[in-house]
């Protein structure tokens, strides 16, 4: 019988893993293009229901060729006008030889969050994975999946299986820039993922929340809401996802209970519907 840590690591590897390293000089050139080529006013904040604000994207490969068309879907992708101005990035994408569905440049600002969610539910049954290439990041920018905070170290290509519940945060800044590659599963992708790994130094296992802790957090959120700070109360609970290992969807249930306690049946219904959307039973998903 495998030790618990080994079982946990194998389960985590199904959700997030490193695939290969990227040469430092190449990373610098990719970073330079990401920071200098996109026009500042073109960044699009899409998927507002999934985020706190501060997460924006531009498309490099999509079905329309427009960099501001960022709501992902199945398509035969073409280079956008933005990618045509980024030769180093274009060469990397070609060299990987993957069957892309969509490719984006994503920016996550300081004190920004992508809430607990899963992706791809509204798309076809085709198997796909999302690859992350971190270009600029910091130690407070984390991805959370499987009850673990993961620092996506730059200089590597990472695989995320976004059909597992996950979220992302950038607590302190500066901006986090990633290339996001949504790829269909094929032999080339299988070869790229054949020797995937994780480093313990990049992982922080979140402690499970006790019932007492949850009650304390709920009472504080309720106090904020009763003082009129409803959005602050919601965010206070939503941020628990980055601090504690919790059962899937429990945070949304707490927010529904919050509005039940306030006697606001409409808001309770809205958050119940949001839980259904964010966790993969309805709606569109294409976030981090």
UniProtKB/TrEMBL annotation:
One Pfam family recorded for the sequence: Asp_Arg_Hydrox
- What positions belong to coiled-coil segments? none
Every copy of the Aspartyl/asparaginy/proline hydroxylase domain together lies at 28-184
Which InterPro entries does the record match to this protein?
Asp/Arg/Pro-Hydrxlase (IPR007803), IPNS-like_sf (IPR027443)
Protein name per the record: Aspartyl/asparaginy/proline hydroxylase domain-containing protein
Record the organism: Nocardia aurantia
């Amino acid at each position: 019988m495998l030790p618990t840590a080994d079982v946990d690591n194998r389960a985590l590897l199904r959700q997030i893993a490193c695939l290969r390293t990227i040469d430092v000089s190449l990373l610098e050139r990719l970073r330079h293009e990401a920071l200098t080529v996109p026009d500042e006013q073109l960044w699009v904040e899409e998927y507002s229901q999934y985020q706190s604000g501060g997460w924006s994207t531009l498309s490099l490969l999509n079905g329309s060729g427009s960099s501001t068309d960022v709501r992902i879907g199945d398509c035969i992708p073409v280079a956008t006008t933005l990618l045509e101005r980024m030769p180093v990035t274009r060469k990397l994408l070609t060299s990987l030889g993957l069957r892309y569905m969509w490719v984006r440049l994503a920016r996550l600002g300081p004190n920004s969050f992508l809430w607990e969610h899963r992706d791809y539910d509204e798309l076809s049954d085709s198997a796909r994975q999302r690859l992350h290439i971190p270009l600029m990041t910091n130690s407070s920018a984390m991805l959370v999946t499987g009850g673990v905070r993961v620092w996506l170290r730059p200089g590597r290509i990472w695989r995320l299986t976004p059909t597992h519940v996950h979220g992302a945060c950038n607590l302190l800044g500066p901006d986090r820039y990633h290339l996001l590659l949504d790829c269909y599963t094929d032999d080339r992708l299988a070869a790229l993922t054949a020797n995937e790994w994780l480093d313990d130094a990049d992982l922080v296992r979140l402690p499970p929340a006790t019932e007492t802790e949850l009650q304390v957090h709920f009472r504080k959120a309720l106090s904020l809401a009763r003082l009129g700070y409803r959005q602050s109360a919601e965010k206070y609970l939503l941020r628990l996802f980055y601090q504690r290992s919790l059962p899937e969807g429990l945070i949304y249930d707490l927010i529904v209970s919050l509005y039940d306690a306030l006697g606001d049946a409409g808001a309770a219904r809205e958050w119940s519907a949001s839980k259904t959307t964010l966790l993969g039973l309805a709606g569109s998903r294409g976030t981090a």
